[in-house]
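Quick question: what would this complex look like in 3D?
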Amino acid sequence: MSSDDMNIRVEGLGKRYEIYAQPADRLKQMLMPRVGWALGRPHRDYFKEFWALRNVSFNVRRGETVGIIGRNGSGKSTLLQMVCGTLHPTEGSVAVRGRIAALLELGAGFNPEFTGRENVYLSGLLYGISESVLRSRFQSIVDFADIGDFIDQPVKTYSSGMYVRLAFAVAAHVDADTLVIDEALSVGDVRFTQKCMRYLRDFQKRGTLLFVSHDTGAVTNLCSRAIWLDGGEQVMDGSARDVVERYLAAQHAADRASLGESVTVRTTANSDLPATGEDHGMPADVVDPRKAVLNGEATRNLIEVFDFDLEQIDSEFGAGAARIVNVQLQLLGGDGKAHRLVAGGEVADLSIDVDVLQPIDAPIFGFYVKDRLGQRIFGDNTYVSYHERPVQAQPGTRLRAHFRFRMPVLPSGDYSVDVALATGTQESHTQQHWIHDAISFKAHESTMRHGLVGIPMHRIEIEQVGA
Amino acid sequence: MISAYKLADPLSPYRALSRHLALVVQMARRDVVGRYRGSFVGLLWSFFNPLLMLMIYTFVFGVIFKSRWRGQTGGQFEFAVILFAGLNINSMFTECANRAPTLIVENTNFVKKVVFPLETLSWSVIGSALFHLLVSTLVLLIIEWLANGAVPWTAVLFPAVIACFLPFVAGVVWLLASLGVFLRDLKQAIGIITTALMFLAPIMYPKETIPVAFRNWMYLNPLTAIVEASQDVLVWGRQPAWEILGLYTLVSMLFAWLAFAWFERSRKGFADVL
């Protein structure tokens, strides 16, 4: 590969922190070697040293997305700070081509006394964007951050969520060639996180992304490549999947070692317990025999649904022959009534209401359920069920589509649902109205730790098959 | 970005200004506006403040002490106006020098979280002090016009006098800002030094009243030359002593260059102790 493709070049990078008892010792360290040399006195250091990072080398090509993983204190943030130029390397070098925008930890260098507006201009100028360009983009930044009147309040009054919203909004508007993100997204709410993930996925097509996270799921999902740091050393650099697998294996081994090799066995559920409640016309054979136990106090996978609110929609598109006016996700509990808080594994009903504005032929309703990273977990549409007998609708009518399905058991976290109405066929269609993150829900206290969804197990047994 | 400047270049302190002009202006403006945010009359305070001070000086020195400057012919206002011309220079310097030691310490974010051209903070502090100097000078000229019916034409030379002063002030800010990070006692010491400089400059008394033996030592005070020059152009209506100002400018630029180079060299250590 030619060196022109190279966006970030890190060579033999190391950072030694010098820990000084008093600020004045730092000054002595700067001056005394010269004075001491002149007086012929032996050299002495005024600090205790600590290597946060050592011997790290890698190159990142333009357009690549690289994840950096490692435990707390492994040097991830130190590395990023040096890539961004806020920290000076003790040894080695970093070269970055083009404009780099960073969201480091919380805060990204806003001045807490300044208002949001002032900070937007200040950060913009720091990124080298001229004041006139900033003025023209200001509205777009404010819309992206979506923090309302707080834009004219000092940043010190912001919640951490608002802070990161504004910081991300600025970083998204400075035409960065490289974006560096350090755990910043974990503080936003679902809707904002989704917005950021959409932005990042789009950004990946044109820019270089350096992504630091403890969340290995996010890393495998977003990055093609990952670098694993441990104790300031570069342990591995390779495909995101390989690195994450090795990292998790090492973590697991370390955890086991700290537990002193004690093995914990979880007792299996008694599969003779009857399933609770009705199943709303769902075939009975999909009922997980463990359901009663899984729904017990400690292991319940509670799912909390937030209502659809037209005012809250911040991303939608479509040709506009029809408009989605209401979306409801009801989780039908054991008693057959609609609940806002129901366990995973129960039957859910998603309905989408549409106002028809122009005559439409063969509408297709569809939805996607996405996790916090914007990864589509599952989804479906009405095409196959209706393509033999297409529905036609005239302006002024309202259509409602129902999807009834068994809600899978979900790892705890935030989820959202995209809904859409299209016309045409599966292969060739026009989106009439697509709403990103129309509704969101939250899964709590799941026993499910790994994978994207839990599926009902029909049978679980251990048997002895040999002597 | 360790140092983006060629420190061997004696004009590097001014490149810091020209390169980041928009940023400096933004920071200075925010500083001026921010100071009065939330107060009832807002920016008008920067106008009332010097006006009230001038009235107090007039009453105390003109009416109570009946102080007279040598060669002074006018009424009660005149002494106050002369005093004010000198004090304005002193306040401009004091404002910058007092803020300098905490400039970096109070903006830790700019050191650790973003790549900020820290060297421009010096120019923004000066920018906001210049704004206050401008307002005070306008007040002075208005009072002078009301009292004497005229303003000396040499007032147009005032910006040139201030231009000779700025490199020195910038140098002081760089030096103190850098040292202030490492020596936290600096802030206390600065208050004493600026007060001493005020009393040891011909601000409240004419140079002629100083015993001859000490008179030329006065010029070791970096405020003296500028104070005299601004009294010349704003009150006496005569040309400033250009040869002194020229020499002053040279020394002041040399100082700014050294201070800037020190600042750029020492900034690597900021992140270690903040």
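Answer marked as accepted. Residues 12-267 of chain B form one domain.
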